[in-house]
Design goal:
heterodimer; A: Ubiquitin-like (UB roll); five-stranded mixed sheet; B: alpha/beta; 10 helices; 8 strands; globular
Chain lengths: 66, 253
Amino acid sequence: MRITLNGEDHEVAPGTTVHKLILDAGRKPAATVVERNGGIVGREAYTSVRLDEGDTVELVQFVGGG
Amino acid sequence: MLSQEQRERYQRNILIPGFGESGQERLLDGSVCIVGLGGLGSSAALYLAAAGVGRLGLIDSDTLELSNLQRQVVHTTDRLGMSKARSAEMTLRALNPGLTLQTAQIRVTAENAGDLFSAYDFVVEATDNFAAKFLINDACLECRTPFATAGILALAGQMMFVVPGKTPCLRCAVPVEPLGVPTTGELGVLGAVPGVLGSLEALAAIRFLAGLWKPAADGSGAVLSVDGESLRWRTTRLPRNPSCRCAMLWSIS
């Protein structure tokens, strides 16, 4: 199933949750803000929301350096 | 009232539509506390001083090391071992002698942050760890001081501008200090990245002090993020989080 992830075409397995997408991208769920089709996904929904074909997803990982 | 020297020094600020002499006067009357004089703080401090923010707090507990200099551009090689606050003061004094510079070689703690930040119009959070970023977020909420907060790692970074009671805060985006995110000590950082993010923090401060900022009607804010590997920028609209500790400020600020 194809989605757009941070502006690029990306293949994910059907049924992939937001939580799994974050982990597969090598990011930390606790530090990542997720925008799906223009709206913010609530943190409590990361493990329940499953991606759909054609979704546009932005993962914004917060980093701590200065 | 600006002097002739000030009119000439800040001519390119004053020419900006909507800024004018009144915007410059607001900057000169304004104050910003910069916490951390590393990569983010270096670029923020340079642009805030050059723009004419009248009083700057320069806070850092560290001394300058050789490995700092590929990104911390407010410092120089001949100042190795010097307090970063003192080194930044020397550079900024030479850049713009008319400013009031208040240095402190201290660590910001939950005990001293409130008194420290209450003395300024705006805080630039430019520390190098999540614990300090959350501490400063919470202290600024407590004393209602607007602030910019940013982070950098390798080729990426993010920045948020927060006005307590008017915008979401850092915890609306990331509720608790995240563990296990790599640090610049592990994955490095290219100096141009904090150069960009620190400049954005300075811009947020100047925009606020000069009266150019207006709150969003729905109280939303934004996370600005940059990925230097793809040269991709994003502005992610961030709604207020009703379960965040900052929510109690929404109605009273």
